[in-house]
């Protein structure tokens, strides 16, 4: 970029060094270019030097007293061994250290290259600016923007309009972006997207390492995968490992299975199609117009979209409108509709409590309604009686059936026992039945026991209420946990401490910069009065409309025409006497001394 081509100078304007030049042909035409030398290439290009830069061109107009030149044709500027810029036209004001280049401007350095059509450079600020569209290439990406600004000391580009970074693996678009050419780091401010075949990232403030392919996003951020959407207060993304993590107010949406997982820390492994989420983690799945909530300290969701598996650990709680439950852990396979509750599981269905060593719930994957349940080992069902007391059924195993999401039948097998409060139609207590049998079938209507059938080796007694003391009204293993029942979604987090969000390391907004064309304190005009530009051209605008944006084949102002060169005598500093034989071109190159304006300050 043009900005690289000028070395910083602390010299004041009063002590400003004069521009030096070398030219094989030096012409003076006061009528057309008052006070200027017209310089032209014969074999070697015109050569300027000033404050650490070198400029070559085919033709030039040099105003020595004003310390200003215009360079035309194959312009090349070089700083040291690292930076080269070419263009079709350039001008430079040595007094204000303000420069302008146009016509296929191309700059290259070890980190990046820039192509644009017009470029302004302020050496005092050490900044360059374009508004006619530019393309920047580095080792990993191609950046394009309509407006751009470069800060030499920070090696930073600032883009403020229509920014596009194209990489073989993704395309980044932003309304405002800072790019550091040395590191390849990009900072996004305002609506931005990073789109690839596998994902789309959106944020309104974020960071992306274009060479390391990692990113960090902190405002309205989300990552859209093929069948998942990840949102959170802050997101981290690693394209190399297809890994993403999120912190605070996390939401992971499964767009295929209509489920959502929330929490305050999440990790997504795309290649394994898995999600890990913790800190107030809760999964929400829609079933038959009813949402099912699963909460645990930690939730893991794995498997492809057509075979998701949800695992919950450490204090799992389950809630839906007509059922709730608790267990140490849970395993849900959406493809089969099977939910396994492990470790002190308990299910509440209306006023029924079911416990056992392990509970399985089976959901109909077509109708999304509850189909059946199984309780393995130490199966125990308790129903709180409407007028006091508890109906109880126990056995080694229990099998239940649902109709319209309501428990309709329960079968208990192996060493079954019941304790049942028998009432007449008005609800008066007849007695308390205690029965042993090999198996039992119980029928329900509106969640109430209506029929009980005993099979094989039945041994039962109907006790009058007064003949069965309170301490004998509980079967062995009775454990009523009704106070733990979840009655609302809020109960998923009951007795849990409020979560304190982790402090997020934000990305501060960039400092508001003054206008690139801000008037200087010394009130000096940036432009020389002989400049092709006018002061109005330095006003900020949405797009460049300068003549310099014309195709470089159309010259914006007359150059040194062939007829002018033929009619205008060469102003050599060593005049040839009349009749003296003219030297050959090679001899002439050595014999003609360039016009040099001595510097006012020692080199």
TrEMBL record:
Residues 536-603 are annotated as: Disordered. Residues 41-174 form the Organic solvent tolerance-like N-terminal domain. Residues 570-585 have a biased composition (Polar residues). This is OstA-like protein. Pfam families: OstA_2. It comes from the Bacteria.
């Amino acid at each position: 970029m043009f900005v690289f081509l000028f070395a910083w100078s602390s010299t004041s304007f009063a002590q400003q060094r004069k521009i030096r030049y070398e030219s094989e042909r030096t012409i003076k035409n006061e009528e057309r270019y008052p006070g200027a030398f017209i310089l032209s290439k014969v074999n070697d290009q015109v050569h300027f030097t000033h404050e650490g830069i070198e400029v070559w061109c085919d033709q030039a107009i040099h105003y020595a007293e004003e310390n200003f030149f215009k360079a035309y044709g194959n312009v090349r500027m070089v700083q040291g061994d690292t930076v080269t810029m070419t263009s079709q036209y350039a001008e430079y004001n040595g007094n204000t250290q303000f420069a302008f280049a146009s016509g296929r401007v191309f700059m290259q350095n070890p980190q990046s290259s820039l192509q644009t059509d017009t470029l302004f450079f302020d050496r005092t600020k050490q900044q360059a600016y374009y508004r006619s569209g530019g393309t920047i290439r580095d080792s990993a990406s191609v950046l394009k923007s309509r407006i751009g600004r470069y800060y030499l000391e920070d090696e930073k580009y600032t883009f403020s309009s229509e920014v596009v970074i194209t990489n073989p693996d993704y395309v980044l678009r932003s309304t405002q972006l800072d790019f550091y050419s040395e590191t390849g780091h990009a900072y996004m401010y305002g609506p931005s997207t990073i789109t690839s075949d596998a994902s789309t990232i959106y944020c309104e403030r974020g960071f992306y390492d274009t060479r390391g392919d990692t990113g960090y996003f902190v405002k309205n951020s989300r990552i859209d995968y093929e069948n998942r959407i990840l949102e959170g207060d802050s997101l981290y993304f690693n394209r190399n490992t297809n890994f993403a993590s999120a912190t605070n107010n996390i939401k992971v949406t499964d767009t295929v299975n209509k489920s959502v997982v929330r929490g305050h820390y999440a990790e997504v492994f795309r290649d394994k199609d898995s999600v890990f989420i913790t800190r107030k983690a809760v999964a929400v799945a829609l079933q038959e117009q009813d949402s099912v909530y699963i909460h645990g300290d930690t939730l893991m969701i794995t498997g492809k979209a057509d075979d998701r598996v949800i695992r919950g650990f450490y204090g799992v709680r389950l809630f839906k409108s007509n059922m709730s439950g608790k267990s140490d852990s849970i395993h849900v396979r959406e493809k089969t509709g099977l939910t396994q509750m492990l470790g002190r599981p308990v299910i509440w269905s209306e006023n029924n409590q079911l416990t056992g060593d392990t509970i399985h719930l089976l959901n109909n994957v077509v109708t999304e309604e509850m189909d059946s349940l199984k309780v393995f080992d130490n199966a125990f069902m308790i129903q709180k009686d409407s007028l006091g007391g508890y109906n109880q059924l126990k056995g080694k195993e229990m099998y239940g059936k649902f109709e319209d999401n309501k428990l309709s039948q329960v079968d208990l097998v192996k060493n079954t026992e019941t304790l049942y409060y028998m009432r007449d139609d008005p609800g008066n207590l007849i007695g308390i039945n205690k029965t042993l049998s090999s198996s039992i079938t119980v029928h329900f209507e509106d969640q109430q026991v209506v029929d009980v059938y005993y099979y094989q080796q039945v041994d039962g007694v109907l006790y009058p209420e007064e003949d069965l003391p309170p301490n004998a009204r509980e079967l062995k293993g009775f454990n009523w946990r009704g106070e733990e029942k979840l009655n609302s979604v809020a109960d998923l987090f009951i007795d849990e401490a409020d979560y304190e969000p982790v402090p997020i390391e934000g990305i501060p907004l960039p400092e508001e910069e003054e206008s690139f064309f801000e008037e200087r304190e010394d009130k000096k005009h940036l432009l020389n009065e002989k400049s092709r530009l006018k002061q109005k051209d330095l006003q900020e605008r949405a797009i460049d409309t300068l003549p310099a944006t014309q195709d470089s084949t159309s010259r914006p102002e007359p150059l040194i025409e062939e007829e002018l060169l033929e009619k205008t005598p060469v102003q050599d500093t060593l005049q040839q006497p009349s009749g003296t034989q003219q030297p050959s071109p090679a001899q002439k190159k050595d014999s003609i001394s360039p016009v040099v304006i001595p510097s006012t300050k020692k080199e």
